[in-house]
Amino acid sequence: MHKTLALIPVVFLTACAVTDDPGQGGFISGIYGVTSGAYDKRLEDRQRNLEALKQAQQGTQLEQQQLHREKVSLAGEVAQLGQATQAMDQTLEDFSLQLSRKQAATKKAEQRKQSLLKKAKLLRGQTLELQKAAQSSAKDAQAVQKLHAEEQRLQKEIKALQSDLQMGLD
Predict the structure, then answer these.
(1) What tens digit of pLDDT does each residue of 61-93 get?
(2) Where are the alpha helices (DSSP H) in 16-140?
(3) Which residue of 20, 38, 55, 130 is surrounded by the most CB atoms within 10 Å?
(4) Sorting pLDDT into bands at 50, 70 and 90, what band is 14?
(5) What is the residue extent of each domain of the chain?
């Protein structure tokens, strides 16, 4: 019977599960964790994870700053594009007024005048569309580049129209 009583503590000790988690184990697990270095290893693992998370956070912050700079840059380009389209619109409006004031001496000159007025009106509409597109695509770099190309095309057509006006009405 004494042998059976002596085995009871051994049975209880072996029945206790040993774990590395200090929140999960009991006294035996605590002693095991401290003596085996498992707690220290767990602490080191958590510190490494914390450092990795901090580095990831820094990377995300840098990326966010870069995206903000790009956003500001695009907003500046859109503002410049808006100013350029307003200037083109004013030029075309002035041009239309000049054409309206000129009186054609012949029927051919009148037809040319009407053709130039239609072209000026078309270009003015395209300029207004470009201005609207510039405002609606402030966040899209590719759209801004396309709008710059369209702006340049319209400026060339306006210059050609001005040249036609000078040659046809002089």
Answers:
(1) 999 999 999 999 988 888 888 888 888 889 888
(2) 27-36, 38-101, 107-136
(3) 130
(4) very low
(5) 2-35, 67-169
Comparing C-alpha atoms, which of 130, 159, 132, 135 is closest to residue 147?
130
For residue 104, what are the contacts with CB-CB under 8 A and spacing of at least 6? 110, 112, 113
What whole-number distance in Å separates Cα of residue 96 and Cα of residue 91? 9
Helix axes 38-101, 107-136, angle to 10 degrees: 160
Length of the chain as a residue count = 170
Whose structure tokens read 């307003």?
Answer: 86
Around Cβ 149, how many Cβ atoms within 10 Å?
9
CA 28 to CA 31: how far, in whole Å?
A: 5
Q: Which residue in the block uniquely carries the two structure tokens 């049975």?
A: 11
DSSP 38-74: HHHHHHHHHHHHHHHHHHHHHHHHHHHHHHHHHHHHH
Task: For residue 104, count other CB atoms closer than 10 A to its CB.
Answer: 15
pLDDT at 19: 61
pLDDT, greater one: 36 or 118? 118
pTM assigned to the model: 0.48
- Asked if residue 47 lies in contact with residue 92, where contact means CB atoms within 8 angstroms, the answer is no
